[in-house]
Amino acid sequence: MSQESLCAWIDGVGFLAPGLPDWPTARAVLRGEETYRAAPSLLPVASLLPPAERRRASRVVRLALALGLEAAAAAGAVEAANLGDLATVFAASGADGHNCHALCEQLATADRRISPTRFHNSVHNAAAGYWGIATRSMAPCQVLCAFDASFGAGLLDALAQVLVDRRPTLLIAYDSEYPEPLHSKRPIPDCAGVALLLVPARTPRSLARITLYPTQQAATTLPDAMLEGLRTTIPALRSLPLLQLLARRESGSERDANGGSDSVCLDYLPPSQLGVDVEAC
């Protein structure tokens, strides 16, 4: 590992996007085993939350909790009852689009009073706060925003925490759509996101080892036009080239063809990009 690279193991993945309700479904599509079929994102009930908070949970909160729970469950963290012990990094290019729209509508009326629920759901760290309530977490938590580079910024921060603190860290990157007229200025088509549970050393559940390093190469694109459309229109899905490589190497197809590790390049803050080497277990 060079001084400029960061390494960790991936123990669990969570995923949700239009037409792709979970990681097993997305993995089959990314491997080419199933055809991608576009459909609205389906958000599960925020079952981790107490009933009162569950009723107040926005689309962004339900999305983030579903992603984190799936990744943690895949890594065995739920069974070990240690969700609250996980350090977390939440990354999103914006906050709750529908809530932002409702606030703007209310402020445009003569009665400009905002409900407390609307207000506390409007802040960028709302999803992180609900995660803390649901898991009773007192572990370190970071909340980041870097516009279209938010996934890359979150991945950098999470890997740095794993390297420095030597503790499992859950990255949850997500985005939400805006209704019109905001949609015309920020045309995210639907809500989507990814969660990665990163650990400092290989475990029996590890899927792959990733190494992140700076580069200025062009971002890796996806051959499927519809998946490439998701990658370019939903910032959290700038992660898709990494996930496709992970899915294929997990199945053995890339590993058998190339051996060792393989690489992709992810969009970041121009002219900087992020190179990622993936070495399957």
From TrEMBL:
All residue ranges annotated as the Beta-ketoacyl synthase-like N-terminal domain in the record: 44-206
Any GO MF annotation of the entry: acyltransferase activity
InterPro entries: Ketoacyl_synth_N (IPR014030), Thiolase-like (IPR016039)
Protein name: Beta-ketoacyl synthase-like N-terminal domain-containing protein
Originating organism: Candidatus Accumulibacter aalborgensis
